[in-house]
Amino acid sequence: MIKDLIAQNEGLIRDMEQRIEKVSGDGLFEFILQDTKELKGTLTGPQNMSFMVVGAYASRWMNKKMEKWLGEKNTVDTLSKSVDNKMGLALMDVADVVR
């Protein structure tokens, strides 16, 4: 299911890239606002939310255990950066900036 979700999201990105090439100026800002609204609807779908919740629980559990067993903090951050997924890496960069 994860691979299907990634493929679906990559398709959405390709579609957005093709659509954004056709706009400029004030139209570009309108496009970004509309696309952001659509993205929020896509990300909050039941399937995506399920994966996010499970991922959050697994990350928390792993961080707690790794700190207890090995004394290492935030191991999930390091491990998730090694995942072969450009979107995941970009999201980790965003999370680092937000923190």
Task: Compose a concise summary of this entry.
This protein is an all-alpha fold.
Question: Would you kindly provide a written description of the structure presented here, covering whatever features stand out?
Answer:
With 99 residues, this protein is mostly helical. 83% of the residues lie in helices and 0% in strands. The chain has 2 domains: 1-44; 50-99, no CATH class. It has helices at 2-20, 26-43, 46-70, 75-81, 86-98.
Number of helices: 5
How many strands in all? 0
Average residue pLDDT: 78
Helix and strand succession? HHHHH
- Strand pairing plus helix content: what structural class? mainly alpha
Proportion of residues in helical segments = over 70%
Domain module tally: 2
User: What proportion strand?
Assistant: under 5%
Largest sheet: none
Span between termini: 29 Å
In the predicted model, the low-confidence regions spanning at least 5 consecutive residues are none
- Described by the principal axes of the CA atoms, the overall outline is elongated
Descriptive terms for the model:
mainly alpha, elongated, 5 helices, 99 residues
Write the layout of secondary structure elements.
Elements: H1 2-20, H2 26-43, H3 46-70, H4 75-81, H5 86-98
